[in-house]
Amino acid sequence: MNLSMKIMDTKRFFSMIMAFVMVFTLLIGSARVQQASADGNTIEAESYNGMSGIANNSTFVGSLDNNDWAQYNNVPFAAGTTGFSANIAVDAAYAGQKIELRLDSTTGTLIGTLTVQSTGGWNTFTTQSTTVTGASGTHNLYLVFKGANGLVEGVGNLDWFKFTGSATPTPTPPPTPTPTPAPTPAAFSQTTPASGATNVNVKPSFTWGTSTGAVSYALIVSTNSSYTSPSINVSNLATASYTPSTALAANTLYYWKVTATNANSSKIASNAGISFTTGAAPTPTPTATPTPTPTPTPTATPTPPPVGTTKYEAENASLSGGTIATSGYPGNSGTGYVEGYQFNANARTDFTVNVASAGNRNLTLRYAAGNSTVTSLNLIINGTVIKALNLPATGNWYTWADKLENVSLNNGVNTISFKSNSSSSDVANLDYILLQADPTPSPTPVPTPGTFSQSAPVNGATNANVKPSFTWGASTAAASYTLVVSTNSSYTSPAINVSSLTGTSYTPTTALAANTLYYWKVTATNATGSRLAGNAGISFTTGAAPTPTPTPSPTPTPPPGSTYYVSPSGNDSSGTGASGNPWKTLAYAAAHVPAGVGSTIYLTAGTFVETKPALIPLGVNIQGAGEANTILSSSGVTLAPGINPSAADYKLWYDGSLIQLISPHYTVFRDPTSAVIAPANGNQTITGFTIDGNSKSLKAGVWVENRNNVTLHHVTFKNLDQRGAVFGPGDKDWFVYPAYYMTGTKIYNCTFINSGKNLGDESIGNLNIAQLDGADIYNITINDNQGGYGIKFIYDGYLKNVKIHDSTITVSESDPMWGENISIELWNLGTGNEIYNVNCNTWLSLVNHPGIFDAPVGTENMKVHGVRMIDLDGDSAKEAIEIAAPGIEVYDSYFQNKGFGMALWDMGHKNISIHNNIFYNTTEHSNWAGAGAIYIDNSRTWSFTNINIYNNVFDTYMNAVKVTGSNISGVNVINNAFLNVGVSDLEAVGSNIVFKNNLKYNAVSKPWVINGATTQANNILGNPGYLNTGSRWDTFYKPSTASSFAVDKGLNVGLPYNGSAPDIGRWEN
Questions:
Q1: Multiple choice CATH, 42-164, 2.60.120.260, 3.40.50.720, 3.20.20.30, 3.40.630.10
Q2: What are the GO MF terms of this UniProt record (predicted)?
Q3: 591, containing H or E segment
């Protein structure tokens, strides 16, 4: 038994079942008096006569938590009993807890204590021993399990035990006969539904041939031949047939297989490839309203009951006789439910209700009854027992049902009670009562939507428009339609998923992928929610994406005043810069325009061939006729004397760039004797053209160095060799704060295409920034599939109050050094920085040097929000964000198919807040860090503190949260939804983590798996009740209703919320 199995035990459930076994045993006599004595013979742990809290696993007992106990009757202790041995399995993290040996009661004479030691795991059993004193004669033996060292659960899994040291010789047990091996189950066939069957009933009768030697069968039904996420998964079937009680989906392809198992658990599977397709769902027959059962109490003349209903929560009622309010099982209303009717003859729940007039009312009781038999409670009205109320079993303790009764109430205050009727097996949990008017006549059923056809695109269509017009026929009785379009016939991860369409056509605003096979289906829904799907197998293939027609930028009107014109047909020798006599090159114009007086160099439409750098003076603007109209083409520019392009630091120099806005500065690499100089006031704008580097023949496009108040907008950078644009004061000494920052920088509406570079030992960015304070960078589009990064620091960074937002970055997902290129990489972040509303496909890297901007509590160096990061090929081993800087907040973002989500290390050691994000993988990933949604690593010598992980969704990860290293404290994991986690929900190595009010749900039920030192409270299991429709970053994980299981189950952590408590997960209902 591993830890996950142990945590899965629902103690209340097993306690209840074992209690019933105990009662049954008492009724038939003391047939279970121990046959083994305390003289060296083995006593099987599962052969107890009574217990509290433990779980019987048929070959051992588990779920041994603090103060749980097991009772063994009539154990004879021979004279001289001095030892106790137990065969036990204990995980290392739970060693040191105790088993007390007591006589005749749980507080009786203590004859010995065994302190359990680690055996290496929950499935590794070893024999451990201790001494015993004071035991003789025949007694009832109690094993009492005790926590220790701060642990209150998981004492161990106990197989058997025995007492030793008796003067009486241990009798030689008779030889155990060798069991005759059971024959391997014989091959058999599956009968119905037959392979390829169509129009099969949505509740099909599955039948198969018998298998010789089989003692049971298991049936699995799934929408895929891998049988993942099965719709039906039942085992221990004794007969060769099964009919489900819950309908399968209509008009859907299913696969089914049966596995036969013999007495030795040998198995043989039938043909796993048999498939069938269900037909339409049957039209539901309206259920007649049941006639209320009359009560023996005389019924007063009924008066018109009040309109509507009133709900009374059981947990708010008056509880007595052993009933208690609790919240252990999911699916209940309000803040919990009432339990405690088992074995409590006086258990009672009293509801106080107030009605406006006397008369009959319909009363609905919401309850759960997990027994296999009918439960009975007395219904009492105003102190009079009305009847024994029979409550049919609900199958388990988290399935809730309604019981309708008609009761007579007095005018004003009444007491409605539910009391145990003294039968020990009558067990139910109560959720609420609903008091309502007499039932109104059932409405006339709305007809099921009629059949209809899908018109366009037709099945098998090719070269379809990437924005196709979907049309279909009208369905009679349909109130709305839902259209789903996907690249697979299972319609997972749809490209289009729109509902509530009232017409019979839809044209998307966003283009589908070009040259791609798509499937599409339409579902009609009537006014009551009944549905009928159209043919789900219609497919089409899109054609090539249309060549986008560039939106021509309006031809700017040259500003009045000092405007100088440059034209491809101009002349540098004879031109004057006038509109009728322009110059020919930008470089010549820049050398002849006066500085500092607001002059503008106006580039007319056409293609300019530039061979020299344009050295732009202070206060001079450059304005083109639009990105599509003015093209600056260059295969490289001349370099100043002494500049060596092979120098190691050439990548950091402005030399080789086309447009240079350079003011004097400290040049530590070129001239260590130069002085630090404050930035000059550029007061200039660059706009309206494209720079074409002619297949990376030109080093860089625009280089702004040590100038304030420079604006760059509506410029396209295309095929530059190293960098598209650079903004920074120039190189500096590392590991020291800058003396100055550039201010007044604005960069917006610019496009960068393949203008970064992989240099082997590093990659450099399309847009490069350093030492900026207050820069505003937005509406940036970057596409680089040749090795360049998106936006990256230059020199050693240093940024304050920089905003990067409303941009789209797509770079290569292959990088020989780091696995994939980086969308945004920034170093040495001071206060006030933000990245928001950014769409990208690869990771962000946020790094500070040791001790740089080591933010105190309440100071944020970077906010990241509204980021949507989706890996293009769905296969990444990299993190979404590297957090190696303090004072980082990441929220309201979506990350899909990254190897792991957040990676915190080094300077990312304190004041980190990660909240209201969605981390989703289509399949589990694996990597060196354990593929967790959150990975915290202090393998060095930092001190990690104040790290808060709140209200996130972690969906389909191998491990959700993994923490490793020492000196880690103040890590809080609260209000998160853990969905479809494959291995571990929390791995905490060397740390103490606060883990509270989290929710776990897997399609195939799994328990919490939490390893390491943690403080846990109020973590729950169950379906959160999310919508599960629409885009995953938008509506998919929102609670479907105000009563969804995740609603109001969280803990107040200081984030805004509605209702009585925060919801669990990304969205607040």
A1: 2.60.120.260
A2: carbohydrate binding
A3: helix 586-592
